[in-house]
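ARCHIVE RECORD
Type: protein–small molecule complex
Small molecule: nicotinamide-adenine-dinucleotide
Source of inputs: curated submission
Record status: active
Notes field left blank by submitter.
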Amino acid sequence: MKILITGGAGFIGSHLSHRLVDEGHRVTVFDNLSTGLKSNIADLIGTENFTFVEGTILDEPTVIQVMKDKDLVIHLAASVGVKLIMDEPLKSIINNLTGTENVLKIANKNKIKTIIASTSEVYGKNSKVPFSESDDRIMGPTQKTRWSYAESKALDEFIALAYYHEESLPVVITRFFNVIGPKQRSEYGMVVPRFISKALRGQDIEIYGDGNQSRCFSYIDDVVEALVRLINCDKAVGEVINVGCDREISINELADMVIKLTESKSKVTHIDPEKVYGEHFEDMQIRKPDLKKIKNLVNWSPSTTIDLSIKSIIESGDLAA
Ligand SMILES: NC(=O)c1ccc[n+]([C@@H]2O[C@H](COP(=O)([O-])OP(=O)(O)OC[C@H]3O[C@@H](n4cnc5c(N)ncnc54)[C@H](O)[C@@H]3O)[C@@H](O)[C@H]2O)c1
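STRUCTURE (tokenized, with ligand):
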């Protein structure tokens, strides 16, 4: 297949690019290198089945160019990371909304199947455990900037589903839950690379809040495997699908595990998240996916444990910081 990956120089996109090229597909990565890095795909550049195009999804004529003759679009390009969203809300909202609108509009002209990356953030403050795909979304007020990411991604989902229902555009929406792995950058607010970077330097690990909040971290190789299976699954078209891991860990336990696995002398401190992100921040206690749907569709479930994931990030030495 000829596949376009928007945001393919980023964390998830670069791993996926390698896997799809290995499988014999012809992959074009389209990325503006805002948070992505050319070094993530350096070994692919110049190889026969790979093309890198630098540009933005906000620029319609270039998107039309890169989408020409493609059989599949995997749309990952977005403004991602709590810190980035809090620092640059306007840019992020426009990027995530207008960019996705462009990608879907142009894909629809040629009816190119499109996979859209969404997020567990769309469930918002709902306290249900676990989240299944049709659960309610409970959002905070618009004054809390953090919710703008969830809202922009939810609108992306609405637009994609509208294209599916009104225009018969084949779309698949994947809601990722805290993906981790080598190449993930620490500076945009991602907790695992931030903790590992600090631990390796012997610096204090700062936990935002009391650390009792928990998350379910999924390992990049598992997520790439899920995406590859979903690409080939006709029954996934028109569906919203959770992709993640259903084993939770508290942020306190995570910090302890990172310190142990890095054999670090770092100390753990707790700080008020408002001191880091300002008053326009709010956190959730737990976010856990119900994975029945993806299991039924493509017989996928995550296999990498959190300690193995952390070990592999440490061993790779690749935190893309
Ligand atoms: N990593 C996670 O845990 C996670 C969780 C939920 C959802 N997601 C979604 O998965 C996708 C990939 O995330 P990631 O973790 O790889 O983040 P990332 O920041 O590493 O990747 C995003 C990529 O998009 C590129 N990009 C941003 N704006 C662009 C634009 N206007 N034009 C072209 N390229 C642009 C960036 O340079 C980067 O390479 C995103 O859509 C994100 O919302 C990720």
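CURATOR ANNOTATION: The mean pLDDT is 95.
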